[in-house]
Design goal:
The chain is mainly alpha-helical and 153 residues long. The protein has helices at residues 2-7, 10-18, 21-31, 33-42, 49-72, 77-87, 89-97, 102-125, 133-152. Helix 3 (21-31) packs across helix 4 and helix 5 (49-72) runs antiparallel to helix 7. The chain starts with a helix and ends with a helix.
């Protein structure tokens, strides 16, 4: 596993892991009243508990649609059309399914990230994503899901 992690470009790994910070902070502020109060005093309630994880998760799920769209541009013909169609699904999922309270939104967001990993795998097997892609996406998806679990539990 460590060899596969070493294949990931350092900048992609560092920025990907840094992208987990809002998710992790949201989970921390669910369990730590002190961290939640400090954050509320510093930047306000949007950046604590489920709010930061759900809002940021919605943005990231939509962002990943754009990444998949970029991969689809490397394909041709029917595969390109399929890639473009599949690439918009995470953004549409985020738009239509993230709402209705934190628990249902959190469950739908987790489902969206699991489905995104399936799409990542499809684009990767088609040779449209870099060789190291699934290693990075698996690490990040596990981090996102673990950080969102406190929202739904």
């Amino acid at each position: 596993m460590l060899d596969r992690v070493r294949e990931i470009p350092k900048s992609a790994l560092i920025l990907g892991l840094a992208g987990l910070l809002p998710f992790i902070w949201g989970a921390i502020t669910i369990y730590s009243q002190g961290a939640a109060e400090w954050t509320m005093g510093l930047v306000g309630p949007r950046f604590i508990g489920p709010y930061v994880g759900l809002a940021y998760g919605t943005v990231i799920l939509s962002f990943m649609s754009g990444v998949l769209w970029g991969f689809a541009t490397k394909a041709e013909g029917g595969q390109a059309a399929t890639g473009y169609a599949l690439s918009v699904l995470p953004a549409l999922w985020a738009f239509f399914m993230i709402g209705g309270g934190p628990v249902s939104a959190g469950m739908n967001l987790i489902a969206g990230f699991v489905a995104l990993l399936v799409l990542d795998y499809a684009f990767w097997t088609w040779g449209l994503a870099p060789r190291w892609w699934m290693t990075l996406r698996t690490i990040l998806t596990v981090g996102v899901i673990l950080s969102l679990l406190p929202v739904v539990l």
